[in-house]
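Might you be able to consider the sequence and fold that I enclose below?
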Amino acid sequence: MSELRRGRIAFLPVVPGSLEFAAATRQAILAARPATVAVGLWRGLETEFLSAVARLPEMSAISWCWTDPLSGEDTDDSYLVVEPCDPFVEAIRSARQVGAEVVFLLGQPPGPAGESPAGASEPFADPLPDPYAAARLGLPAYLRTALQELPSAGADLQVVEDMVGALQGVDPAGETLVVVALPALAPLMKALKQPGPGQAGAEVFPEPGDEPALRLAANVLNLHPECLAEVCNLPPYYVERYERWRETPEAKPPDRLQLQRELLREAEFNYHAQTTETLSVWQRRQMARYSRKLALSARLLLPDLFDLLTAARGVADDNFAWEVWHAAGQWPWQLEESDRETVKLSSEDLSPRTRRMRLRRMPLREKRMRLPRGLKDRPKERFPGEWARQIDGDAICSYPPEDLVIEDYGRVLRHKARSMLTEERSHVEPFVTSLLDGIDVRETIRNWHRGEIWVRRAERAAGDVGAVVVIFNEDAKDQYGYCTTWLGEHQNESDMAFYSTFPFDHMVGPGIGRAEYGGFLMVLPSRRMFDIWSDPDYDMAENKPERLLLAALDYSLERHVLYVAAKPPRSIFRTVAARFGRNILYLPMGQLSPSKLKRIRVVHVLDGYRRRRVAKDYLW
């Protein structure tokens, strides 16, 4: 853009902390190779900035405070994170690469919470459009639009004089590229075009006799790896992709929308590995809509990390939100031990305007009391594979507390099925002589204009509900290869056949494996069921759910068999059920509570009864 030049000085307005403008800054410096690169950073912290940039890709934080020489009192420490995706940091790195001189434009850094001690200058902090628009519209279109929308209020003369004075000291014979914050562009170019008093090249400091000068103390600190996701302007996951792109600048810069998709995809993969749960299509779609609305409420095009975490927790759960947070904070170059002091900063250390979120990876206990002091952590393997080596394969059994949960849920499903039967056989009729089973309010209101009262007659269906079949996944991709049948240990425990993931691929304790049900069958009374997976009577089944349904029709002592799944069985099974003298009740999976289904879908398989004595120390 020709209007962004003043003689041999070219201007590149940027949005601080923006990946898009950091990439544009690098491309501009490598293409123009100027003799001088001027950046809108504080000269009072020049030594610390250059030292922190030299440590990249290991990130640093610059801390500084002001000391009153008369009282000896220090202000609170202020912090600034030096990260690769900042355009000013990228300008310094690229300038060093092409051998250009680096000039700092601003004067002294501000005090805590933006307070300006004597001689200090504050950077421009006007609100700007989302810089992702520059990746879509192009840099020239974004700059034209942003400059038109910026407020026309006057700029801080101290800041402008500092910048003009620094630019008047550069080599006039060489090309100079000025990387400056977008709101500072217009005041700076106006001051260069029409120089005024005080813009002779020297910095403006307080006159003697004014308030005493403060002494600046600054230091470069190493950031702890665990705090990067909280203190960085962009998620370190994005910055890592940018850092790798710097090695191939001829390639297309990373796109933040694509990086967001990759982040969520990786978090979902880790979520499945930790909990064996997967997100459905509707959850991904709802998360995209929710995060988009959160971004629009903040006048952004793309959601920030906090918005992603909010959407992830709202649509899925805290475990998935934590996986998003964990994946977003990965930065392979950061070390906890360094030649610099390592600090673990929080967002409150950088800005008083922060948002908080508490993630609970584990479900809350029913009694929400504090853990006893001195309670030991869950035991862990001393070496990989220790627990798997303790499996002898003599027998398997279940974990009794889980048996109670699934038996209770089976009773709930049977009660719901009986309600369905009663509802099917109920009908309403006008009131004549008897109220029957009560007034039907809905039908009475519907016929109120006729002056009629309608009553309900509920007739009990013949037969009860026996076997229960629950299908979570039809296993079209053969992911649930562990098929077994185990018998109830007492009269109140059902015989059960199920298919699941292989439990001993995911060890959670010595001889204790964790699996996820694909589907299961429950039937009473106990100790009657043969191994249905090897029974030739059910070979007509085309898949595992159909084999469970055939066994349920065969073993059920009651007339009705409940089938819970995402879709009903094939119509031929109505005929098969009639031949058994049974009736299939279909209950859509969507009518049940997702949280309850999630709770009963996990099963732990123990390698023998002796494991029950220690299982409570490993299961959650």
About this structure: Residues 244 and 254 are 10 Å apart (CA to CA). The chain has 20 helices and 19 strands. The mean pLDDT is 83.
